[in-house]
Structures are given as structure tokens and as C-alpha cells.
Write a structure and sequence with these properties.
Strand content: 25-35%
Shape: globular
Largest sheet: 7 strands, mixed
Distance between the termini: 5 Å
Number of helices: 6
CATH class: Alpha Beta
Number of strands: 14
CATH topology: Metallo-beta-lactamase, Chain A
Number of domains: 1
Bound molecules: zinc ion
Radius of gyration: 17 Å
CATH architecture: 4-Layer Sandwich
Helix content: 10-25%
Strand order of the largest sheet: 6-5-4-3-2-1-14
């Protein structure tokens, strides 16, 4: 499986860093975790087929994780008519569907059928290519971290957290995690030591969604952990 960071920034974009969007390619299909940027433009820039996008999983509804959904659905609605992306939303799929429908209506467009579903805690998705398990976090009323399983690999994606000391789904690391993709916008990166120090199930760590105010702590964390360590930038690709 290949993971590409289309956006690695925190709550606001920075020069050459867009908001959070993670593209996962596996089994000839494309999946997204979060779409806080104009992911459909980036997808096309990379020469990928929009029709290959199977499912989009949002960690929570803050705009830096979800704003790109509108343009994605808009273009699938009127132009990429064979695309059938499924959208998984924390808390309020029906509300989000109605909001996008209303947005399209402003332009006089009717929205065709798209599957919008609520994310459910625990194992909630299995299409025979990937399996998704959701872990409730405390960042918002409805916010989740995910474990994505495919090709016998496990990838953890933190979404946004209050902080690893008070808000971290440790049970996701009961088994080996080949790659953990963790945010660092809201707390000192050294707080991850409370869950990752001497954690034999952590095989590789990638910090993304980092704020520049915490970047020196990210470098400290790197020096304190013995696992392979990556700092995400826009366009970074990781083979898992
Ligand atoms: Zn965020």
C-alpha cells in the first residue's frame, strides 16, 4: 500500500503546506483519510482516476479535515458521473449530506445519490481490500482515530487529539502498528513519550499536522525514540 500526504499542515495552510488530506492506494483502489484540501485537483494532477476513489473517511468535521469534500462531491456529481465515492462521517453524515446538497442547490444542481454513512466506533468498514476500525477521541464531540488494515499491515492515523497523555487510544497498539501517523498541532510532541517510549508495537512513526510552534519538540521526540521517524511534507509518499 502507498500512502501520500496531499496536505500535511495543521489547522491553517502554510506556504507549500495544505490542510490535512491523506491518500491511500491499495488493491487498485484509492481511499482518503480526511479531505481538508482540494484533493480532487491534486488527484488529477497526479494522473489518478477519480473513479478509483472508493471511500473517504473523515476524522472530524473541522474544516482543515473536511472542506475538500464539497468540491469532491460537486465534481463527481456533474462531471465524473461514474465515480461512486462512499463518505464516512463522524457523528452526522445526514447533516453533511444535506449541507452539500444545499450548496449544490445554490447553483441549481440536484445531487445524485452518494452513500454517506456515520462512522461507528470499532470495526466499521471492510470492503475486502481494507478494514477500518474507529477509536473515539476527545478532540470534538465526534472525532476519531483510525486503524487501517490492508495487505497484512496496520496503519494508525491519530486524527486530532487533546493530547496523548489524556486522549490516546492505546488499545490500537495492542498489536504491531507498521506505521503510526500522528498529529502535533495541539501539544508538545514529547507528550507522545507517554505512549510510545518502549512501545514495541510501534514500528515507524510519521508526524504530520504539526504546528511550527512545536517543531523543536518534534525533533526532541525523534531523538528520544529508536523507531524510524518521518516528518510529513506535502507530497511525501510512504510504502507500507
Ligand atoms: Zn486539525
Amino acid at each position: 500500500m502507498k500512502i501520500t500526504f496531499l496536505g500535511s499542515s495543521h489547522g491553517v495552510p502554510e506556504a507549500n503546506r495544505r490542510c490535512q488530506s491523506i491518500m491511500i492506494e491499495v488493491g487498485g483502489k484509492i481511499y482518503f483519510v480526511d479531505m481538508g484540501t482540494q484533493s480532487i485537483e491534486q488527484l488529477i494532477t497526479k494522473g489518478k482516476a477519480v473513479e478509483d476513489v472508493k471511500s473517504i473517511f473523515i476524522t472530524h468535521l473541522h474544516g482543515d479535515h473536511s472542506n475538500g469534500l464539497i468540491s469532491f462531491i460537486d465534481l463527481c456529481n456533474w462531471y465524473f458521473k461514474k465515480a461512486e465515492p462512499e463518505v464516512y462521517i463522524p457523528g452526522s453524515a445526514e447533516k453533511v449530506k444535506s449541507a452539500i446538497e444545499a450548496w449544490l442547490k445554490c447553483n441549481g444542481e440536484d445531487m445524485r445519490y452518494f452513500k454517506f454513512e456515520d462512522v461507528k466506533e470499532g470495526a466499521f468498514y471492510n470492503d475486502g481490500i481494507i478494514k477500518m476500525t474507529a477509536y473515539r477521541t476527545k478532540h470534538k464531540d465526534f472525532s476519531y482515530a483510525y486503524i487501517l488494515e490492508a495487505e497484512n499491515k496496520r496503519v494508525f492515523i491519530s486524527g486530532d487529539l487533546l493530547g496523548p497523555k489524556a486522549d490516546f487510544p492505546k488499545e490500537a497498539f495492542d498489536k504491531p502498528v507498521d506505521l503510526a501517523i500522528c498529529e502535533c498541532a495541539h501539544f508538545n510532541a514529547n507528550d507522545y513519550l507517554s505512549v510510545f517510549e518502549n512501545n514495541e508495537n510501534l514500528k515507524k512513526l510519521c508526524i504530520t499536522h504539526y504546528s511550527n510552534r512545536w517543531i523543536s519538540s518534534v525533533m526532541e521526540l525523534k531523538s528520544k525514540l529508536s523507531v524510524p521517524f518521518l516528518l510529513a511534507t506535502d507530497g511525501l509518499e510512504i510504502d507500507v
